[in-house]
Structure prediction request, 1111 residues.
Amino acid sequence: MARTVIPFGPQHPVLPEPIQLKLELEDETVVGVMPIIGYIHRGIEKAAELNDFRQNVFICERICGICSFIHALTYCEGAEAMTSVEVPPRARFLRVFWSELSRTHSHLLWLGLLADSMGFESLFMQIWRAREMILDISEMTAGHRIIQSTCIIGGVRRDIDKEMAKEVDKRLLAFKEMLDSTIAPVLLRDPTIKRRAVGKGMLSKEQAELLGAVGPTSRGSGVAIDIRQTGYAAYKEVGFEPVVETAGDSYARTLVRAREVYQCVELMRKALSMMPEGEILVRVDGYPEGEAMSRTEQPRGELIYYFRGNGTNNLERLKIRTPTFANIPTLLVMLPGCEMADVPVITLSIDPCIACTER
Amino acid sequence: MENEILVEKADFIPAVQKMLAEKARFGTTSCVDLGDKFELIYHFEPQESPEPLTHIRVKIAKEETLPSISSMYLCAALIENEIQENFNVQISGIALDYQKRFLRSKESPESALLKPVPYAPKPPARLPVRCGEACPAGIDIPRYVRLIGEGKFAESLATIKQSMPFPGILGRVCFAPCEDNCRQAKQEEPIAIRMLKRFAYDHASYGEKATAKQTGKRVAIIGSGPAGLAAAYYLAKMGHGVTIFESLPQAGGMMRVGIPSYRLPRKILDDEINMVKNLGVEIKTNTKVESLDTLFKDGYQAVLVATGAHQGMKLGVEGEEHPKVMECIDFLRDVAFGKMVKLGDRVMVIGGGNAAIDSARTALRLGSKEVTILYRRTRAEMPADAEEVEEAIKEGVKIEFLAAPKKIFSENGAVTLENIRMKLGAPDASGRPRPEPIEGSEFKVGVDSIIAAIGQTPAVPEQFNIEIGRFGNVIVAEGDTFATSKEGSFAAGDAVTGPASVVEAVGAAKKAAISIDKYLGGKGVLPVEEIKVKEPTSRHTFLERWQEKREVEVSIVDGSVTVSVEKKRAEMPCLPLEERLGKFDEVELGLTEEMAIAEGQRCWRCDLEQ
Amino acid sequence: MGILSTSRMKSPWLLHFDCGSCNGCDIEILAALTPLYDIERFGIVNMGNPKHADVLLVTGPANHRNYRVLRNLYQQMRDPKGVIVVGTCGCTGGVFHNCPNVLGGIDKVIPVDVYVPGCAARPEAIIDAVVLALGKLKAYGK
Prediction:
């Protein structure tokens, strides 16, 4: 059996973003993997040291366009801790709402791409059609389809009034109905999806812990870890249970995300109904001093920011650990042993976000 | 920040080891350039639940080297590599090096941890299947059929033995409700499940594993029929001392006295009974139990009443007491025990069940020339096995449908039977159309003897002192526990259900054995032997076989598609008709190896469908 | 107009390359292909192969690592070809203008025909840009 090295990417139809995998093949079986990254490194951590700390919200938001709101939220949580700002309760609930909106649209996007990588074009189109309903809610509440730009240090920039909340609730119910009728049955029952995903890309619980996997990748292997349990923003008040599957294959990770979409809808509706009246923004005085850590649950897993300030309007250091960065090593375990044709599905199953990883 | 641990370079690794011992997860590492030195902060997450992070801070001079922690936390390797690249911090001994090429594994003990999970996907969860659900004994039918298809006969037999002790008997006499429920029956012919069971018994052997530790408890079983023997088998395997009391000279119950030996050779029956005896079960033949209380006095802690249904039902017509009229159950018993029975040339059998067919075929073998079965409904309503009816007709048995006896009397030295024609009316309680007599359609038939085979009922002695149901003379036993009205006594088999089948009796006995074990203080867990065979992961093999065995013809003219099935259900080789009469040799000869494997491979494997 | 240029006008094929964007514009390009906007009804098809493509869609600013890949892709495409930059950061560097690894707008690396500002650009604007780029392809045949 001859060994061949095949480059996969950086420009490849199933990958919307550039990452290169050098696959070592024995006939059709993958025996070794070398991920090569760095194609879209921009140096955001360094840029954050050059900008005013209030401007950084907007550049952090553009680390990743898919989960932009959660990046902004994580930055704001840390900056607020350093400047000792208490965020008004209404703003905390609105932050939960937009976080979950981001998560819903991210998971749907991923489910669509997964269907596409399996060659299941009609499911891809169905899921993206449902996703447009979520983007409409985003446009209605924040003014933009993708990058909400509503979170700033001290609170949020936009409010959702009662009338709009009612309309959002109506649309969420319609969205849920669409999930129930067209998407969930296919994901749960369709043999095409099962044949392509069940048993593919196995990651055991021990390996997930050893390799430091986070988010749905680790939850698909039975590790019940979800940073929302720490209760940042208003998650403590809203309350939720992490979604866990134990099989550890690509299908388990698919199910985790599919079930989380339902969870997100519930959390959004809860956040809107439990939201107290009051201010949404407080004034921020002073400059960041000392150190802070902030951690949130991004659609792909745990996001960690480390801040160090020195009392000026520039941060001394901003360190960002993104979830995909922690999940890439799992590919070293998942890919060897699979067949070449399964590489796109397995690679996608960790939901790689290269824009996050490389910053 | 809270939870800080300041360490020197020398204490760095022990501090990380301490975090590891506390089961902390590695979060990330931050590096800060302080001008003359670097400060590295390692963030850990204590315990499994998310709590505030713990931070280990270490300061090193710019030219100094820090040891890598990737030997403890493999996931740290990536971040250490990144810091090394971005800040030019010297970190030594990183398990995975991506300085030039990202993530190249070095030879280190940890690289062994990166071996992928053995690429063996879990077998999909098996679905309940219709054949398996229909089986009263709960045999894992799809698995044993598949194993025969794979040529693994011993494993197949062991699979059957997991849920049923008598494959030899049931492989021959089971009425196979599984085959009626086979999904394949809808398109083709059902899999010959019963024949495969018999094949497994004939072509493989099974060694009974040692029984459980003796419990010291004693159980008495009254009746050595299928229910009694099966219960004895399971109770003995669970470690109880079992004694079977049988009133007849030989054990086997209805299997010996009801089923003729051309269907169930006595050698098979004796082998199976000996198998039960070898487990330490004592069988006392010619012993009639008069009262349950004496058994309890003799030191038995529990009693199972499995007396079966051995009393023939009365015809209820005039002249029934005629000496030439006999009960089929007495007739078959006499034949089984080798008594001479004189029938004469013309025999009339009344009834449409399996017992009637058995009596008719036995009569032919005893030398009768003209055997007729009288049945008051039509063939569609006959409770007897279709296969059996077919064989009987082949052998020359005539069946008179839609007729019932009215009067029996002697005329000109022979017995004469006056019958009346029937027509089918509205359905009765059993769902079958009720036969109604047609007035004035009486006709007379002269015969030499009459066998009444219209059904049997249990005959439970009154001295047993247990509650008897109002209908059908059956023992009242609780649904799940099989306990009767008397403390410590249980009942199963035909004595509870009325006349039924061997497999139903075995299935009930199995449950009764569990219940008795629980009553005696056990856990009620049947001993099941694990079978080590490779499980299929999907129906792929089925799809391939589907392609092989079918030839699809497409007609160009009208576009019609004809599917021709190459492999049909295996035909059981049978004894030629001329060799059957006059003796009791087994009629069915058993499948050949090729036939059995082909039949096993024909299964659709519905259990693996997703 | 010959058959070649007619068919090119009626069905331009796209090549999409992410040069370092935040994904916002990339998913809007994908969204333009899916049921709500459905540019495939105009015959516009997203392709993975540069030699098949007529129009190159670039998102994000050029950086030191990937500008060679971008130039290589551009050179592989056959004439006539159009280049569309999607998103503010690709037009000028935008929010990433002072990032250490960023070169600036795409036009520092390859010639650009159509600029689509917006962060992220809306699908309608992307469809409009493709139509504008077709103008260049149309002129080529004459």
About this structure: The longest helix of chain A spans residues 89-117. Chain A has one domain: 3-358. Residues 110 and 351 of chain A are 7 Å apart (CA to CA).
